[in-house]
Amino acid sequence: MKKTLIFLLSFALVTGCSSDDEQVDNEEENQNGFTFNNSFFSAGNVYVNDENIENDEQSDIAIIMSNVDLFTVNQSSNVNFVYFDFKGVDIQEGTITNVTDYRILYDASVNDSRVENGMTIINDTEDGLTASSTTIVINSVSSTDIDFEFTFIKENGDVINGNYSGGYTELN
Fold it and tell me: Other C-beta atoms within 10 Å of 126: how many?
């Protein structure tokens, strides 16, 4: 009887937790980057550029993500890159749906801080690669850290989801 009880308890522990644990592990693995076609692309370096820090007039505010430091590294392949900008006075918490300038690549190269080549997932200037819907949610922002998520839906229905939580570099 004891052996049966021990076996049943062991079986319950092994099977009772596995699917939830896998889901949590998968969610933790898919942080600070983007997902497209069930593939995750890491992008743990974030840069923010506000084109007008002189006054309270609206200007483009850009968020740039990459898996490499774009300003210190030259790399011939395997560069993941996300760029989008939106109009604003300051970067602040909230939801942005009017994103007209965007580009997401993987397996690109970087040379002298220029991202080139690679596989384009979405680009506002290329027919067939534009978005029918864009959403950026900035959950929190300070002078050193930012937490945001984004979703781009391509004209063909493909979805690109991404997120980041951590420190960033100001480019202005």
Answer: 10
Instruction: Work out whether strand 169-170 and strand 45-50 pair parallel, antiparallel, or are unpaired.
Output: parallel
> In the numeric block, which tokens belong to residue 27?
């969610």
CB neighbour list of residue 70: distance below 8 Å, 6 or more residues apart: 45, 47, 64, 81, 110, 113, 115
Q: What is the pLDDT of residues 81-99, one digit of tens each?
A: 999 999 987 889 999 999 9
CA distance linking residue 119 with residue 121, whole number of Å: 6
SS (H, E, C) 9-66: HHHHHHHHHHHHHHHHHHHHHCCCEEEECCEEEECCEEEEEECCCCCCCCEEEEEEEE
pTM for the whole structure: 0.80
